[in-house]
Amino acid sequence: MILLTGATGFIGSHVLRALSGKNLEIRCLSRKPVNSQSPNISYVTGDVLDYESLVKATEGVDTVYYFIHMMGSQKEQERFDVLDRIAVTNMTGACRANGVKRIIHLTGMGNAQEKLSHHLASRREVEEIIKNSGIDYTIFRASVIMGRGGAAFEILDTAVRKFPVIPVFNWGNTRVQPIYIGDVIRYLVECLNKEETINKSFDIGCSEIFSYKELMQQYAQELGLKRSFISIPGSWRWASAVLLGKLAPVSPEVVYWLIESLQNNMVCEQNDLKRIFGFEPVSFRESIRKINELNT
């Protein structure tokens, strides 16, 4: 049996759709009761901040998909990194208690040689807790995931569509390697049956590397939009977060922490994913076309 966390979120909802057609028994963790319309999908009520509920949720489970990140959920006024730590510690403890064999996790990419942003440092800490849990794992790290509903993509899309003149702050030359959501889901689902991915971590991205300025320029070109770019010193995080938080379907708090992360390069280290999975992620421009096709 598979336990899927974050089943209603951006990544989790895509994974649920992909898994539902594979005749697998799937249990989804939900904070509220949900009635399933599918014979192979069930729901269990629980909260990652409640250890006992996770012990119940992981009973009889072989694999856990862990897609929890508390950024934007300022419960009890605690910082998201504190909540992330509690949540993953609860989950790994419950998995050990019930003999769960494997945790599959998607996290953020970040260069270990750089000082990581609060967001990416928390992501890295969660990854290390999973790795040191004594449970088998497969971990994928991504930068900008191209797909509707993804916070980073929605911010990119809003900035390019809404502003004829786009300010570029001190993150303009930071390098990034984006990836299409369909390729992310393919890695997450197909790794279930690939033993070569057990106890391994992989950076995932398309073959192209861009600066954030180049990313916006190419996105605008693909949409057929003429945009001008102006360089402005500084980061202007809160001003950007407030403005984009009003225009994009992303909370200002999440926008702020993601903008802080723009200081960190997100470029893939070499790996053997093509040999293991037999495919390469689509190009950046192709990912834009695929997104547009889905929305027409």
Describe the structure.
By secondary structure, this protein is an alpha/beta fold. The protein contains eleven helices and 13 strands. The protein has helices spanning 10-20, 51-57, 80-98, 118-131, 151-162, 181-190, 212-223, 237-247, 252-260, 273-277, 284-294; strands spanning 2-4, 26-30, 41-45, 63-66, 102-108, 136-142, 145-146, 165-168, 175-176, 179-180, 200-203, 210-211, 228-231. The radius of gyration is 19 Å and the shape is globular.
Supply Rg. Answer: 19 Å
Secondary-structure element order, as H and E? EHEEHEHEHEEHEEEHEEHEHHHH
Poorly predicted spans: none
Q: How much strand? A: 15-25%
Largest sheet: 7 strands, parallel
Main sheet strand line-up: 3-2-1-4-5-6-11
Derived from helix and strand composition plus strand pairing, the structural class reads alpha/beta
Tally of DSSP helical segments? 11
Mean of pLDDT: 93
Head-to-tail CA distance between termini: 36 Å
What is the count of β-strands? 13
Helix residue percentage: 40-55%
Shape: globular
Write the layout of secondary structure elements.
Blueprint: E1 2-4, H1 10-20, E2 26-30, E3 41-45, H2 51-57, E4 63-66, H3 80-98, E5 102-108, H4 118-131, E6 136-142, E7 145-146, H5 151-162, E8 165-168, E9 175-176, E10 179-180, H6 181-190, E11 200-203, E12 210-211, H7 212-223, E13 228-231, H8 237-247, H9 252-260, H10 273-277, H11 284-294
Parallel strand pairs: 1-2, 1-4, 2-3, 4-5, 5-6, 6-11, 7-10, 8-13
Antiparallel strand pairs: 9-12
Helix pairs in contact: 1-6, 2-3, 3-4, 5-7, 8-9
